[in-house]
Amino acid sequence: MSETRRTFLTAAAGLAATGASGAAPKSSAKSKVGCCSWNIHGYAPGSNAEAAVETIGELGFDAVELILLAPQDVGNYWTDPTLDRIKKKIERYHLQLTQFVVFMRAVPDLASQNAEARARTLDIFEAGCKIAQKLGAPIVNLSSPWAEEMKGPGEVLVNYFDVNDPKPGEKYHINFAPGFTWGEVWQRYVQTTRECVARAKAHALHLTIEPHTNCLVHDATAFLRLWDTIRDPALGCNLDIGFAARAREYPPLAIYQLNEHLMNLHMRDVDGLMRKFVPFGDGVMDAKAIADALKAIGYQGGLSIEQDRTPQVKVSCARYLETMRQHLV
User: Fold this and answer.
1) Cys-Cys crosslink for 74: which of 127, 210, 321, 328, Cβ 3.0 to 4.6 Å?
2) Residue 168 lies in a domain
Protein backbone atom coordinates (compact mmCIF):
# COMPACT_ATOMS: atom_id res chain seq x y z
CA MET A 1 0.00 0.00 0.00
CA SER A 2 1.38 3.44 -0.92
CA GLU A 3 2.20 5.93 1.84
CA THR A 4 -0.25 8.40 0.33
CA ARG A 5 -3.12 5.92 0.51
CA ARG A 6 -2.12 4.86 4.03
CA THR A 7 -2.15 8.49 5.21
CA PHE A 8 -5.52 9.14 3.58
CA LEU A 9 -7.14 6.08 5.11
CA THR A 10 -5.75 6.86 8.55
CA ALA A 11 -7.18 10.37 8.37
CA ALA A 12 -10.55 9.09 7.18
CA ALA A 13 -10.68 6.57 10.01
CA GLY A 14 -9.92 9.35 12.47
CA LEU A 15 -12.81 11.41 11.15
CA ALA A 16 -15.13 8.45 11.56
CA ALA A 17 -14.02 7.83 15.13
CA THR A 18 -14.55 11.38 16.34
CA GLY A 19 -18.26 11.39 15.51
CA ALA A 20 -19.12 8.01 16.97
CA SER A 21 -18.58 8.76 20.69
CA GLY A 22 -16.15 5.86 20.91
CA ALA A 23 -18.74 3.35 19.71
CA ALA A 24 -17.50 0.13 18.19
CA PRO A 25 -17.94 -0.13 14.41
CA LYS A 26 -21.01 -1.97 13.22
CA SER A 27 -18.98 -4.20 10.91
CA SER A 28 -15.74 -6.06 11.51
CA ALA A 29 -14.77 -5.40 7.90
CA LYS A 30 -12.21 -2.68 7.21
CA SER A 31 -14.34 -1.29 4.40
CA LYS A 32 -17.40 0.73 5.37
CA VAL A 33 -20.68 -0.55 3.93
CA GLY A 34 -22.74 2.53 3.16
CA CYS A 35 -25.88 3.85 1.50
CA CYS A 36 -26.39 6.92 -0.68
CA SER A 37 -28.96 9.31 0.77
CA TRP A 38 -30.59 9.88 -2.64
CA ASN A 39 -31.70 6.25 -2.66
CA ILE A 40 -34.21 7.42 -0.08
CA HIS A 41 -34.96 11.07 -0.90
CA GLY A 42 -34.52 11.15 -4.69
CA TYR A 43 -32.96 13.83 -6.91
CA ALA A 44 -35.31 16.80 -6.53
CA PRO A 45 -33.57 20.03 -5.43
CA GLY A 46 -34.05 20.71 -1.73
CA SER A 47 -34.67 17.06 -0.87
CA ASN A 48 -34.64 16.36 2.87
CA ALA A 49 -31.43 14.51 3.69
CA GLU A 50 -32.25 14.38 7.41
CA ALA A 51 -35.01 11.81 7.00
CA ALA A 52 -32.77 9.78 4.70
CA VAL A 53 -29.98 9.72 7.29
CA GLU A 54 -32.45 8.43 9.87
CA THR A 55 -33.62 5.66 7.54
CA ILE A 56 -30.06 4.63 6.66
CA GLY A 57 -29.06 4.65 10.33
CA GLU A 58 -32.08 2.57 11.33
CA LEU A 59 -31.22 0.00 8.63
CA GLY A 60 -27.87 -0.47 10.38
CA PHE A 61 -25.41 0.82 7.79
CA ASP A 62 -21.85 1.79 8.68
CA ALA A 63 -21.77 4.85 6.44
CA VAL A 64 -23.76 7.35 4.41
CA GLU A 65 -23.16 9.64 1.43
CA LEU A 66 -24.86 13.01 1.04
CA ILE A 67 -25.32 15.17 -2.05
CA LEU A 68 -25.61 18.74 -3.32
CA LEU A 69 -28.34 18.39 -5.93
CA ALA A 70 -28.64 21.91 -7.37
CA PRO A 71 -26.87 25.30 -7.17
CA GLN A 72 -29.78 26.89 -5.29
CA ASP A 73 -29.50 24.28 -2.55
CA VAL A 74 -26.27 25.91 -1.33
CA GLY A 75 -28.18 28.72 0.32
CA ASN A 76 -31.70 27.34 0.38
CA TYR A 77 -31.14 23.91 1.93
CA TRP A 78 -27.54 23.41 3.06
CA THR A 79 -27.65 26.12 5.72
CA ASP A 80 -25.72 26.02 9.01
CA PRO A 81 -28.82 24.92 11.02
CA THR A 82 -29.41 22.07 8.54
CA LEU A 83 -25.76 21.05 8.73
CA ASP A 84 -25.89 21.00 12.53
CA ARG A 85 -29.02 18.82 12.56
CA ILE A 86 -27.57 16.37 10.03
CA LYS A 87 -24.28 16.10 11.90
CA LYS A 88 -26.17 15.23 15.08
CA LYS A 89 -28.13 12.53 13.25
CA ILE A 90 -24.93 11.08 11.76
CA GLU A 91 -23.42 10.95 15.25
CA ARG A 92 -26.60 9.51 16.76
CA TYR A 93 -26.56 6.55 14.38
CA HIS A 94 -22.76 6.14 14.55
CA LEU A 95 -22.45 6.63 10.80
CA GLN A 96 -19.37 7.62 8.85
CA LEU A 97 -19.84 10.22 6.12
CA THR A 98 -17.56 8.66 3.51
CA GLN A 99 -17.95 11.35 0.87
CA PHE A 100 -20.04 14.35 -0.14
CA VAL A 101 -21.25 14.34 -3.74
CA VAL A 102 -21.66 17.41 -5.94
CA PHE A 103 -24.26 16.22 -8.46
CA MET A 104 -23.70 16.76 -12.19
CA ARG A 105 -26.78 19.01 -12.42
CA ALA A 106 -25.27 21.31 -9.79
CA VAL A 107 -22.10 21.79 -11.85
CA PRO A 108 -23.21 21.48 -15.49
CA ASP A 109 -20.37 23.48 -17.06
CA LEU A 110 -17.23 21.68 -15.91
CA ALA A 111 -16.31 20.92 -19.53
CA SER A 112 -17.77 24.09 -21.07
CA GLN A 113 -15.94 26.02 -23.79
CA ASN A 114 -17.09 29.19 -22.04
CA ALA A 115 -14.51 30.32 -19.46
CA GLU A 116 -17.04 32.36 -17.48
CA ALA A 117 -19.42 29.40 -17.27
CA ARG A 118 -16.58 27.17 -16.04
CA ALA A 119 -15.64 29.77 -13.43
CA ARG A 120 -19.21 29.92 -12.11
CA THR A 121 -19.33 26.14 -11.95
CA LEU A 122 -16.03 26.02 -10.06
CA ASP A 123 -17.47 28.43 -7.50
CA ILE A 124 -20.48 26.14 -7.00
CA PHE A 125 -18.12 23.21 -6.62
CA GLU A 126 -16.15 25.10 -3.98
CA ALA A 127 -19.39 25.84 -2.14
CA GLY A 128 -19.92 22.07 -2.11
CA CYS A 129 -16.42 21.65 -0.69
CA LYS A 130 -17.27 24.02 2.16
CA ILE A 131 -20.39 21.99 2.97
CA ALA A 132 -18.39 18.76 2.87
CA GLN A 133 -15.77 20.18 5.22
CA LYS A 134 -18.37 21.41 7.71
CA LEU A 135 -19.97 17.96 7.70
CA GLY A 136 -16.63 16.24 8.31
CA ALA A 137 -16.45 14.35 5.00
CA PRO A 138 -12.94 13.33 3.88
CA ILE A 139 -13.87 13.32 0.17
CA VAL A 140 -15.83 15.45 -2.28
CA ASN A 141 -17.06 13.68 -5.42
CA LEU A 142 -17.73 14.73 -9.02
CA SER A 143 -19.03 12.65 -11.90
CA SER A 144 -16.97 13.09 -15.03
CA PRO A 145 -18.76 15.38 -17.50
CA TRP A 146 -19.19 14.70 -21.19
CA ALA A 147 -17.98 17.13 -23.83
CA GLU A 148 -20.63 19.77 -24.50
CA GLU A 149 -19.75 19.39 -28.19
CA MET A 150 -21.36 15.93 -28.06
CA LYS A 151 -25.16 15.59 -28.30
CA GLY A 152 -27.25 12.45 -28.06
CA PRO A 153 -31.01 11.96 -28.37
CA GLY A 154 -31.60 12.80 -24.69
CA GLU A 155 -30.53 15.55 -22.34
CA VAL A 156 -28.26 13.35 -20.21
CA LEU A 157 -25.63 11.65 -22.37
CA VAL A 158 -24.59 9.20 -19.64
CA ASN A 159 -28.01 7.54 -20.03
CA TYR A 160 -27.54 6.94 -23.76
CA PHE A 161 -25.94 3.50 -23.68
CA ASP A 162 -28.16 1.46 -26.00
CA VAL A 163 -31.13 1.58 -28.38
CA ASN A 164 -34.16 -0.18 -26.96
CA ASP A 165 -36.37 -1.78 -29.65
CA PRO A 166 -34.78 0.08 -32.57
CA LYS A 167 -36.97 0.99 -35.51
CA PRO A 168 -35.89 -0.17 -39.00
CA GLY A 169 -32.85 1.85 -39.99
CA GLU A 170 -32.42 3.45 -36.55
CA LYS A 171 -28.79 3.71 -35.47
CA TYR A 172 -27.05 4.39 -32.20
CA HIS A 173 -25.68 7.86 -32.91
CA ILE A 174 -24.05 10.84 -31.17
CA ASN A 175 -23.58 14.18 -32.95
CA PHE A 176 -20.31 16.11 -32.79
CA ALA A 177 -20.15 19.89 -33.16
CA PRO A 178 -18.24 21.26 -36.16
CA GLY A 179 -14.57 21.63 -35.33
CA PHE A 180 -14.69 19.09 -32.50
CA THR A 181 -11.14 18.27 -31.40
CA TRP A 182 -10.67 15.68 -28.69
CA GLY A 183 -7.26 17.00 -27.64
CA GLU A 184 -8.62 20.48 -26.94
CA VAL A 185 -11.57 19.12 -24.98
CA TRP A 186 -9.33 16.85 -22.92
CA GLN A 187 -6.82 19.58 -22.07
CA ARG A 188 -9.65 21.90 -21.01
CA TYR A 189 -11.02 19.21 -18.72
CA VAL A 190 -7.59 18.44 -17.28
CA GLN A 191 -7.15 22.09 -16.34
CA THR A 192 -10.62 22.25 -14.76
CA THR A 193 -9.89 19.08 -12.77
CA ARG A 194 -6.61 20.58 -11.55
CA GLU A 195 -8.55 23.59 -10.28
CA CYS A 196 -11.10 21.30 -8.58
CA VAL A 197 -8.30 19.38 -6.85
CA ALA A 198 -6.77 22.64 -5.65
CA ARG A 199 -10.08 23.88 -4.25
CA ALA A 200 -10.77 20.54 -2.57
CA LYS A 201 -7.31 20.56 -0.95
CA ALA A 202 -7.91 24.10 0.30
CA HIS A 203 -10.72 22.62 2.38
CA ALA A 204 -8.72 19.57 3.53
CA LEU A 205 -10.54 17.23 1.14
CA HIS A 206 -9.68 14.61 -1.43
CA LEU A 207 -11.49 14.70 -4.79
CA THR A 208 -12.90 11.60 -6.47
CA ILE A 209 -13.88 11.48 -10.14
CA GLU A 210 -16.63 9.02 -11.11
CA PRO A 211 -16.46 7.50 -14.62
CA HIS A 212 -19.70 7.35 -16.61
CA THR A 213 -20.87 6.32 -20.08
CA ASN A 214 -19.80 8.64 -22.95
CA CYS A 215 -17.96 10.94 -20.54
CA LEU A 216 -14.43 12.32 -20.67
CA VAL A 217 -13.50 9.77 -18.03
CA HIS A 218 -15.57 6.73 -18.95
CA ASP A 219 -13.65 3.85 -17.33
CA ALA A 220 -10.72 2.94 -15.09
CA THR A 221 -8.09 3.33 -17.79
CA ALA A 222 -9.36 6.82 -18.69
CA PHE A 223 -9.16 7.79 -15.03
CA LEU A 224 -5.59 6.51 -14.85
CA ARG A 225 -4.72 8.67 -17.86
CA LEU A 226 -6.18 11.68 -16.04
CA TRP A 227 -4.26 10.84 -12.87
CA ASP A 228 -0.99 10.35 -14.76
CA THR A 229 -1.46 13.83 -16.24
CA ILE A 230 -2.31 15.59 -12.96
CA ARG A 231 -0.33 13.35 -10.58
CA ASP A 232 -1.76 14.64 -7.33
CA PRO A 233 -2.35 12.20 -4.43
CA ALA A 234 -5.47 14.17 -3.46
CA LEU A 235 -7.12 12.94 -6.68
CA GLY A 236 -8.82 9.54 -6.62
CA CYS A 237 -11.50 7.50 -8.33
CA ASN A 238 -15.05 6.69 -7.27
CA LEU A 239 -15.86 3.50 -9.18
CA ASP A 240 -19.52 2.96 -10.02
CA ILE A 241 -19.60 -0.78 -10.65
CA GLY A 242 -22.92 -0.60 -12.52
CA PHE A 243 -21.68 1.93 -15.05
CA ALA A 244 -18.46 -0.07 -15.35
CA ALA A 245 -20.51 -3.15 -16.29
CA ARG A 246 -22.54 -1.13 -18.81
CA ALA A 247 -19.25 -0.14 -20.45
CA ARG A 248 -18.32 -3.85 -20.60
CA GLU A 249 -15.62 -3.28 -18.01
CA TYR A 250 -15.30 -6.11 -15.49
CA PRO A 251 -15.59 -4.39 -12.07
CA PRO A 252 -13.08 -6.59 -10.20
CA LEU A 253 -10.49 -5.91 -12.93
CA ALA A 254 -11.18 -2.18 -12.66
CA ILE A 255 -10.54 -2.45 -8.91
CA TYR A 256 -7.16 -4.09 -9.53
CA GLN A 257 -6.32 -1.45 -12.16
CA LEU A 258 -7.19 1.49 -9.93
CA ASN A 259 -5.56 0.02 -6.81
CA GLU A 260 -4.30 2.83 -4.55
CA HIS A 261 -6.23 5.42 -6.59
CA LEU A 262 -9.56 3.83 -5.61
CA MET A 263 -11.05 5.94 -2.81
CA ASN A 264 -14.78 5.07 -2.91
CA LEU A 265 -17.27 2.78 -4.67
CA HIS A 266 -20.90 3.01 -5.71
CA MET A 267 -22.43 -0.45 -5.74
CA ARG A 268 -25.27 -1.62 -7.99
CA ASP A 269 -26.66 -4.79 -9.50
CA VAL A 270 -27.28 -5.14 -13.23
CA ASP A 271 -29.26 -7.44 -15.51
CA GLY A 272 -27.65 -10.08 -17.72
CA LEU A 273 -27.44 -7.76 -20.75
CA MET A 274 -25.58 -5.17 -18.65
CA ARG A 275 -28.25 -2.55 -19.43
CA LYS A 276 -30.68 -2.15 -16.55
CA PHE A 277 -29.88 -1.56 -12.91
CA VAL A 278 -31.99 -4.00 -10.90
CA PRO A 279 -32.60 -4.41 -7.15
CA PHE A 280 -29.47 -5.68 -5.47
CA GLY A 281 -29.34 -9.47 -5.53
CA ASP A 282 -31.66 -9.81 -8.53
CA GLY A 283 -28.97 -9.40 -11.20
CA VAL A 284 -25.64 -10.85 -12.29
CA MET A 285 -23.19 -8.58 -10.45
CA ASP A 286 -20.67 -10.78 -8.62
CA ALA A 287 -20.55 -9.14 -5.19
CA LYS A 288 -18.15 -11.76 -3.80
CA ALA A 289 -15.65 -11.21 -6.61
CA ILE A 290 -15.80 -7.46 -5.96
CA ALA A 291 -15.26 -7.97 -2.23
CA ASP A 292 -12.34 -10.35 -2.90
CA ALA A 293 -10.68 -7.79 -5.20
CA LEU A 294 -11.11 -5.05 -2.59
CA LYS A 295 -9.52 -7.23 0.09
CA ALA A 296 -6.69 -8.15 -2.27
CA ILE A 297 -5.67 -4.51 -2.82
CA GLY A 298 -6.06 -3.63 0.87
CA TYR A 299 -9.01 -1.30 0.30
CA GLN A 300 -10.38 0.33 3.46
CA GLY A 301 -12.73 2.99 2.11
CA GLY A 302 -16.46 3.21 1.60
CA LEU A 303 -18.72 1.21 -0.69
CA SER A 304 -22.23 2.59 -0.87
CA ILE A 305 -25.24 1.09 -2.55
CA GLU A 306 -26.70 3.41 -5.19
CA GLN A 307 -30.20 2.13 -5.90
CA ASP A 308 -33.06 3.63 -7.87
CA ARG A 309 -35.73 5.01 -5.56
CA THR A 310 -38.67 2.59 -5.55
CA PRO A 311 -41.22 1.42 -2.96
CA GLN A 312 -38.92 -1.58 -2.34
CA VAL A 313 -35.67 0.37 -2.01
CA LYS A 314 -35.34 -0.29 1.74
CA VAL A 315 -35.61 -4.05 1.14
CA SER A 316 -32.94 -3.88 -1.56
CA CYS A 317 -30.64 -1.78 0.63
CA ALA A 318 -31.03 -4.15 3.58
CA ARG A 319 -30.23 -7.11 1.32
CA TYR A 320 -27.12 -5.32 0.05
CA LEU A 321 -25.94 -4.58 3.60
CA GLU A 322 -26.27 -8.22 4.66
CA THR A 323 -24.58 -9.51 1.50
CA MET A 324 -21.56 -7.22 1.69
CA ARG A 325 -21.05 -7.77 5.41
CA GLN A 326 -20.83 -11.49 4.68
CA HIS A 327 -18.38 -11.11 1.80
CA LEU A 328 -16.08 -8.54 3.40
CA VAL A 329 -15.22 -10.43 6.60
Assistant:
1) 127
2) no
